[in-house]
Amino acid sequence: MNAEATADAPEFRAPFVVAHRGASVARPEHTLAAYELALTEGADGVECDVRLTRDGHLVCVHDRTVDRTSSGVGLVSELSLDELRELDFGDATDPAAVLTLRELITLVLDWRERPVKLFIETKHPVRYGGLVESTLLGELQRFGIGSPASAAHSRAVVMSFAATAVWRIRRAAPLLPTVLLGESSRYLGGSAATTVGATAVGPSVKTLREHPDLVDRAAAAGRATYCWTADDPDDVKLCRELGVGWIATNYPGRTKTLLAELE
């Protein structure tokens, strides 16, 4: 299996496994421990959601607020990085600090056992609008991965449910692979993905079950498919049968084992 395959190169093969917010069933989501475990379990890629803090740092937090995932309360956008670092994002047995995107990129690039891709989702709508994407591109450039020689060798993939966010990335960094996330009504015909130049589409498992022809339609248009979130073994098998390129799952180790058994 080619570990350098990207969301730009659809082909029929066993899907690559992306750890959704890390190994987020076994460890608190979006924590260093969750991502370290995912890498140890053999994940081909790791997924994160990013939001901007009040002082302009990108942190790995899914929700608009920190209420669900930390010991504190409040909007991420109204808190500084130092204030976020005072909160516990772990659990009773595994305390953890907030994870910055910079720390996650460092972890992924320093992982020497195999190349691992980083799937970064920008959240919208947010008060900072396009500043999220421009800050993200600046961070990728800081690590030398913002302008890959080709999409096939990119270590980062940028995703969003917001078509405007995908368009901003494609316009500023045309060789970075991108995924337009969303449900079937937005891209079954391919118009939205074509308009913004997305190199892959990202349906949910539910959508994939309702529209199994979506993968072939995407491939016919030169796009790969990234499916979320495939935790049930039957969903993993379906993704494999349909030729999905990348599977996002909360169980990266178990999913890798299942796919190996199906080979």
TrEMBL record:
Matching PROSITE patterns: GP_PDE
Residues spanning the signal sequence: none
Superkingdom in the source lineage: Bacteria
Gene3D superfamilies the record matches: Phosphatidylinositol (PI) phosphodiesterase
SUPFAM superfamilies xref list: PLC-like phosphodiesterases
Domain GP-PDE: 15-259
Coiled coil residues, start to end: none
PANTHER family attached to this UniProt entry: GLYCEROPHOSPHODIESTER PHOSPHODIESTERASE 1-RELATED, GLYCEROPHOSPHORYL DIESTER PHOSPHODIESTERASE
Protein's recorded name: Glycerophosphodiester phosphodiesterase
